[in-house]
From TrEMBL:
InterPro entries: Glyco_trans_1, Glyco_trans_4_5
Pfam families per record: Glyco_trans_4_5, Glycos_transf_1
Highest taxon of the lineage: Eukaryota
Keywords: Glycosyltransferase, Membrane, Transferase, Transmembrane, Transmembrane helix
Membrane spanning stretches: 31-50
Keyword Plastid assigned: no
MF terms in GO: glycosyltransferase activity
Gene3D superfamilies linked to this entry: Glycogen Phosphorylase B
UniProt name for this protein: Glycosyl transferase family 1 domain-containing protein
Organism of origin: Ceratopteris richardii (Triangle waterfern)
CDD domains, sorted: GT4_PimA-like
Domain Glycosyl transferase family: 280-458
Length: 499
């Protein structure tokens, strides 16, 4: 509890004067290449297989976005001389680490583990990867991702078999990714399991009820530690495991995620951002002065697009009533993350828009591998996830990197990212949140300076605690419990032990 209090204190935002300025850009060849690459990605819209997104967490939250970036971070081979790039994970040098993923696909969970795999490899770890899926479940996507792991010097192990068991027994650390990966333990290991569990770190990103099943998580009390993306989710796991399953959580660490290097670089490239903004706006038929509020998430009731659109209509009415000059109303909504074949929920959204005759103001955009063009093009991100909210919601920190204010539900990880009134505004979940979201939208429409200062504050907060290096340091601190370290490194980034 005490440590949580400290955490709350730390969430004070830095003054914007400390924020690093975006560097002025010349149209260098690199920029040009980056811009063209983004434009191509931006046009490569549909990505049906992303719909396999498995949970309410970072996974589906990151759905339209994470993918290409995470995948592209694996393009380059690990440099030979990697030890010079300290990333807070130096203590893994020479250690044998086995990462276990429940699948290998372009969804948030596996891609996050791939990012970690590369970070651990760069820090000098001997990294091995297991995908707990059948041979028949292999497909071009999983093979492509596997090839990227191999290219980065990461060895792929079969999910089962004596060789795998030997590696696991000898390993210094095993990282299980997602609650679902629990199935692998019983399927693969038999005797002496407690020794293996002791050196296992379980990284959990889920918050839905159906993950609280004994056959998935019965070994949780025996693992060395659990690592969870937000305090809200960690609290929920503690509660649910006790109440529902009568099991006790192991030592649990909250590790907030960070933005990938690629997203960070794109967000700092002022020229590319401007060109992407122009390009996307032209495609959607928007002018530069239109103010665009967007939800970038899978289209599903849990993400609250319906409530968002209703709030949008209320905001339009409010502006119409109060605006001295009605011609100045230039408020737009974008729903980014539609399926190739619209689902029932999306059809509901579309008929709502048609009934209200606001088709010209609401833009439905297909799922995309790359959210960067949309983050560059919009003015405000709306994170309207309902019920317990997002487990973490990586899109929130991605938007903040692009200096966007975020209007978010006061639930889940979102509450731990947004500083209400400073980097964005919070509204309650459910119907009672709708009028407040509408008012918050009006407030941002009417006050460009407020939008801009919130965007700058959000960017500052990301620079301070939501970059890849911060995540790496936080994970490094958790790994210290497993891998007694030889090399001391600064303790300036704290992963807070919760339970
Ligand atoms: C289990 O562990 C014990 C003690 O660590 C060891 O003697 C034994 O050989 C192990 N059994 C197997 C099957 O590995
Ligand atoms: C879990 O949550 C419920 C409802 O919010 C509460 O009544 C209960 O005391 C909590 N249990 C634990 C173990 O925290
Ligand atoms: C989005 O998907 C729909 C349905 O497949 C398709 O008709 C439409 O052309 C796509 N839009 C874009 C911009 O690719
Ligand atoms: C957010 O701040 C506003 C005032 O800026 C306040 O009215 C509202 O209650 C706050 N919401 C939460 C969830 O703290």
């Amino acid at each position: 509890m005490h440590q949580r209090g400290q955490h709350r204190q730390e969430t004070e935002v830095t003054s914007s004067s400390k924020l690093p300025m975006a560097k002025p850009a010349l149209l260098s060849r690199n920029h040009y290449v980056a811009v063209i690459a983004f434009l191509i990605l931006c046009l490569t819209a549909v990505l049906a297989f992303i719909s396999r997104s498995i949970s309410s967490c970072t996974l589906s939250a990151s759905l339209p976005g994470l993918t290409q970036r995470a995948a592209s971070s694996l393009h380059d081979q690990v440099p030979e001389e990697s030890s010079s790039q300290a990333n807070g994970l130096e203590l893994v040098r020479g250690k044998s680490i086995v990462l276990v993923s429940h699948e290998l696909s372009l969804t948030g969970g596996p891609l996050l583990l791939m990012e970690l795999a590369v970070l651990l490899k760069r820090a000098g770890g001997d990294v091995k990867w297991i995908t707990n899926q059948k041979d028949t479940e292999r497909n071009p996507t999983s093979q492509g991702l596997e090839a990227k792991l191999i290219k980065n010097g990461i060895q792929i192990l079969l999910p089962r078999g004596s060789q795998t068991v030997e590696f696991v027994k000898l390993a210094d650390l095993i990282v299980l990714n997602t609650a679902v990966a629990g199935k692998w333990i019983d399927a693969t290991l038999s005797d002496n399991i407690s020794e293996i569990l002791k050196k296992t770190l379980w990284w959990i990103h889920e918050m839905r009820g159906h993950y609280f099943k004994l056959d998935l998580v019965k070994h949780l009390p025996q693992v060395g530690a659990a690592m969870i993306d937000s305090y809200a989710t960690a609290d929920y796991w503690k509660n649910r495991t006790e109440e529902r399953l009568s099991i006790t959580m192991p030592p649990t660490y909250v590790v907030h995620l960070g933005n990938s290097k690629e997203l960070t670089e794109a967000s700092e490239d002022v020229l590319a951002r401007g060109l992407l903004r122009q390009h996307v706006r032209e495609n959607l038929g928007l002018s530069d002065s239109d103010i665009v509020f967007a939800i970038i998430n899978s289209v599903s009731r849990g993400k609250g697009q319906d409530l968002f659109l209703k709030s949008f209509v209320t905001a339009l009415d409010l502006i119409e009533k109060t605006s001295p000059d009605k011609r100045q109303i230039n408020l737009h909504a974008a729903i980014v993350g539609c399926d190739t074949t619209p689902n029932k929920y999306e059809m509901e959204l579309r008929s709502f828009v048609a009934e209200r005759k606001i088709e010209h103001l609401v833009h439905f955009v297909n799922k995309t591998m790359n959210v960067i063009p949309y983050l560059a093009a919009i003015d405000v991100l709306v994170q309207n996830s309902q019920a317990r909210g997002e487990c973490f919601g990586r899109i929130t920190i991605e938007a903040m990197a692009f200096q966007l204010p975020v209007l978010g539900t006061a639930a889940g990880g979102t509450k731990e990212i947004i500083v209400n009134g400073t980097t964005g505004l919070l509204h309650p979940v459910g119907k009672e949140g709708m009028p407040i979201l509408a008012q918050n939208m009006v407030q941002l429409v009417n006050n460009a300076a407020f939008r801009a200062s919130m965007g700058r504050n959000g960017h500052g907060r990301v620079q301070e605690r939501f970059l890849e290096k911060h995540m790496a340091h936080r994970i490094g601190q958790v790994l210290q419990k497993f891998l007694p370290n030889k090399n001391q490194y600064p303790r300036s980034f704290s992963a807070h032990k919760l339970l």
